Amino acid sequence: MFWHIVKRELYDNMNSLRFAVTTMLLLALMVVNAVGYFGEYNARLTEYRRKVSESLDEMEGNADRLFSLVLNGPGKLRKKPSALTFCADGGEAFLSEYAEGRKGGWSYGWNRDGKGYRVEGIWYLNYPQANPSLWNIMPADTNVSWASIIALVLSFVAILFTFDAISGERERGTLQLMLSNSVSRDAILLGKFVAAFLSIAIPFLIAALINLFLLYTAGGVPLGAHEWARLGILLLITLFYIVIFVALGLLVSSRITQSSISLMVLLLIWATWVVLTPSTLGSIATGLKPAQTSAEFDQHRSKQRDNLKKEYLSDNPFEFEGPTRSYPPTKATQRWAEYVKREAELSERLNKEHLRDQINQIKFARSLARISPASIVGYAVESLAGTGFSRHLQFLDQVNRFAPQFRAFTNETDAADAESPHLFGVKEGMSDKPVRFEAIPKFQDRVSLSSDFNTAAVDVLLLILFGVVLFASAYLSFLRANILH
Amino acid sequence: MFLTLLQRELLANLIAFRFSVAVIICLLLVVTNTIVLIDDYKSRLASYNTAAQKHWEEAKNAETYSQLTVSVDRPPNPLSIFNQGLDRRLGNSVDIHHSHVPALWDTASHSADNPFLSLFSSIDLLFIFQVIFSLMALLFAYDAIAGEREGGTLRLMLTTPVQRGSILFAKYISAMLCLIVPLIMSLLLSLILYAFSQAIVLSGDDWVRIGGILLTSIVYLSAFYLIGLLLSTLTQRTATALMLSMLLWGTLVLIYPSASIFAVNRLVKADSKLEAAYEEIQQIWEEFDRVRTDLKNQDPFKGENMYGSVGIGSGTNADSTTLRYYSYESINWNRIDDEKSGPQIPHVKTYYKSLESQRIRAAEKTWLVRQEALKQIYVRKASVAQTVMRLSPAAMYDMATEAWAGTDFHGIEDFLQAARQYRQTLIHYLEDKDTFASRQWFASDKGAVNLDDLPQFTYRRTDALTGAKRAMPDVAALLLINVVLFLTTLLIFIKQEV
Questions:
Q1: pLDDT of residue B307
Q2: Could you give the CA distance from residue B117 to residue B123 in angstroms, rounded to a whole number?
Q3: 3-state secondary structure (DSSP) of residue B75
Q4: Average pLDDT for residues A33-55, to the nearest whole number?
Q5: pLDDT (tens digit, 9 = 90+) per residue, B97-114?
């Protein structure tokens, strides 16, 4: 009996105008998405490789001497592009594609007794900002990606398929007829649920496969086992998302007697919950948890730096000696080395704190925005596509783990040289020998499915929770619903 | 008779469930968003004030005339609360120097808050109107004719001596009245919140602009209502009418504008004129370099340096993607040994006198090339996107209100125009005092220059009339859509079997 209802509903749905329009719309959007990303991944990958090898060349140039490696640092550490950018853009344009370990940017140089001295700030980590929209006069838009198609279009379509599922039958009197036969209410609701679900999921899957086919054959997107695993999970998430809105539609449809009012209520819920809430909550949340502005940060940093300077260089630095290469090292050399080292440590720590502050603000806003399932599905798709904010955090994490490795390497190399005075930070206190380029640790951005899945897991669970709660309420409400018009 | 019809429709609409729901949702959204937006505006205004003051002080710190660079800032637009447009996004601070004519692509941002915030799309009042009111208009319209036909009341009504035209018209007027009420209520509410916030001072012009936005909103609403009415006349069943209007709504308001921008962004490639223009600009400055070498060679003190402490910041500022290319020299000799280099000084003065006017000329020539090329590369793409988007009334509405609020590209260009004007003022100031040929152009050994009479930069948004002119094409197109839709509906309705 249950399958009979499913079949009947499915035929009804597929013969309807909305099914035809939905299928066309999804196909059109997926094709636009595929064509938009033709060749995009290859171009980005080539660019990434070129820039990485550029940084490596620069590093090789610095390897002629340990100190120039310590001074210039590892250079730009780049984020690897994802093959699945077409699934979710994730605001990549607003996330910097590299972090940077570069020169401290300050120096003292002076002459004394016919000898020239020069002390320079050594490398520390910087997190440059990306601000691409400064010159972008294109009108603001939502990117046509899988994420936006899923979040906006699928939820909309789910509402269109379910608003009259129960109220329509009640209006026509067929609900009464059906229940007078030996059909249980469970079977009717489940049947309608499954049918609506299938008539959305099937066109979406077809459109998605066409999209992937186009991208694979003509768009230069490599689809290996890893990508398929990601896409599989992603499609599963999409199905959970569809469940939420089908259940919502059934819930409202069973409570409200007129199908036109049911659609109206659903649309207003949809417009506020899916379209308006994510951005509104985002801006409210960022207002609730303000982060340090750049001006404040600059002020704070220069104050801290001045304090450190006072501690070490309160007497005019040109009055006391510069660093010299001597055994045992002079007091001045020790003092300069310590200052240089602490200055770099301080700057790196402040940068990290500032970044953490900013990240926390966004994390808070994102968790508040999760009230809307549209945001949740967006975040989950983003994580699985390997783009967006959570991916950026993973990248920053790797960068933060790499920096001490690089530092440890330079320390060890210095320690291994018996001729060095072992004063890290100034040229005169360090090994003067060239470094073997092959031995230098190199940054490699790694993408791992398991960590991406871990970040997406919370979102997936939330989606399931939403789905279960809505489905249960729809079920209960239908069990108690009045079947008369 | 018409009045009776009107009254009937009006009452039916007002007591409808949809009316109250729509009003409540709209007011709720408008209030929360206005509070957020006003807060945002305040912080932007604060950062503008700090930046403007800081930049002015920095400019006055110049010790010689050649060091003089003034950074000017664009204040946030108070009407950006209605339509943010490009106001919040684009660069809002630009350096003014006689060696370079500034364009939008030289701007920086003074309000550098958390850059990750751009991950959240920001919402303005217009977006709420755009989404919610078009939805409401369609919800009011879908059963206007189809519902009466289904209920059989249409037939009943036509047995009385009522003209079909007046039925349609009564429906239109009453629905519009019901739609305008929540619109005006939400507008008033946000204006009250404005008044409470006190940070925002609206001028008389701004009120005209807000009036323009209100007018455009009404025309937009009416366009969507008429779309719904047409569908309602065409279809037999209300359910079909509703379904069709919703699909059309989703496509026109949410999907089509974004999809067309995406497509234009991805598919319209910037042309390769960039390189040609860059080469042309490079040639201009190579020519300038030749002139400079010639000038140096004419100098009898060839190859000799002046005695004193040298502080020269000179070089070329070049960026091939934005076609920025110019050379600058900011010189500050803070100690000159008069005995040794005294005879040189007149030569240096004549050198800079002719060099700097050459530099200004080169900058102007560069601008002619650059302006055209930048238009070709960046502006063309945006206008292609806008043209494609105009198929959707929602996009037209967006653009028209952007123009009214002055947050569109033209509004931002106005600021840069003012900045370029200010550069001229600055050059006049330098020329009037004959500074290029003065000792203070390059030397501060006799004290820093006195910049107390330096003209200050002022920027006023253009008047409401200009905004109206810019908004007019879109408003007119929306009106035309209205007329066409109404006439089509009327014709179909008159010819129709009941």
A1: 47
A2: 13
A3: coil
A4: 91
A5: 988 999 888 888 876 677
A307 in contact with chain B, both atoms CB, cutoff 8 A: no
* B331 pLDDT more than 50: yes
Q: Angle between the B238-249 and A17-36 helix axes, to the nearest 10 degrees?
A: 10
Q: CB-based contacts of B325: which residues, under 8 Å, 6+ apart?
A: B278, B281, B282, B285, B316, B317, B318, B319, B366
Q: Which residues of B touch A267 (CB under 8 A)?
A: 135, 139, 246
pLDDT tens-place string over residues A461-474: 999 999 999 999 99
Q: Tokens 């004063």 sit at which residue?
A: A423
Mean pLDDT in residue range B398-424: 92
Burial readout B67-90 (b: 16 or more C-beta within 10 A, e: otherwise): bbbbbbbbbbbbbbbbbbbbbbbb
**Interface contact B89-A95, CB threshold 8 A:** no
Q: Does A148 touch chain B (CB under 8 A)?
A: yes
pLDDT at B301 over 70: no
What value of ipTM does the predicted structure carry?
0.81
Contacts of B119 in chain A (CB under 8 A): 91, 94-95, 282, 362, 388-389
Residue with tokens 């090994």: A431
pLDDT in tens, B118-149: 788 778 889 889 988 898 899 888 888 888 88
Closest alpha carbon within chain B to A278: B120
> Which chain B residue is nearest to residue A296, measuring alpha carbons?
B113
Query: How many Å apart are CA B331 and CA B329, to the nearest integer?
Result: 6
- Count of C-beta atoms within a 10 Å radius of residue B302: 8
A178 touching chain B per CB within 8 A: no
Contact A91 B119 (CB under 8 A): yes
Residues of A in contact with B108 (CB under 8 A): 134
pLDDT given at position A251: 94
Question: What pLDDT, in 10s, does the model give residues A159-191?
Answer: 999 988 888 888 888 887 877 877 788 888 899
CA distance B86 to chain A (A): 7
pTM comes to 0.87
Please report, rounded to a whole number, the percentage of residues in chain B having pLDDT higher than 70: 95
Please report the sign of the dihedral spanned by the C-alpha atoms of residue B381, residue B384, residue B389, residue B395.
positive
Tell me the average pLDDT across B219-229. 95
* Residue B483 scores a pLDDT above 60: yes
Q: Which of A135, A159, A363 to mutate to test the interface with B (most CBs of B within 10 A)?
A: A135
Which residues of B are less than 8 Å from A18 in CB distance?
A: 243, 247
A294 touches chain B (CB under 8 A): yes
**Contact map slice: A 21-60 vs B, CB within 8 A:** 21, 25, 29, 32, 35-37
Give the start-to-end residue ranges of the domains of chain A: 1-485
Distance between CA atoms of residues A328 and A137, nearest Å: 62
Q: Which tokens in the block code for residue B498?
A: 């009941």
pLDDT digits (tens, 9 = 90+) for A65-83: 888 889 999 999 999 999 9
Query: How many CA atoms, within 13 angstroms, populate the side-chain half-sphere of residue B118?
Result: 23
Cross-chain Cβ contact A131/B113 below 8 Å: no
Q: What is the structure's pLDDT at A406? A: 93
Query: Among the residues of A121-276, which ranges form H helices?
Result: 146-148, 155-162, 167-172, 174-180, 185-217, 225-255, 259-270
Dist. CA B94–CA B72, nearest whole Å:
6
∠ at Cα B329 (B326, B330), nearest 5°? 130
Is A18 in contact with B113 (Cβ distance < 8 A)? Answer: no
Closest approach of chain B CAs to the CA of A131, in angstroms? Answer: 7
Determine what percent of chain B falls in helix, strand and coil, rounding each to the nearest 5. 70, 5, 25
Q: Cα–Cα distance between A222 and A230 in angstroms, integer?
A: 13
Contact call for A32 and B18, based on CB within 8 A: no
In chain A, the residue whose alpha carbon lies closest to the alpha carbon of B54 is A295
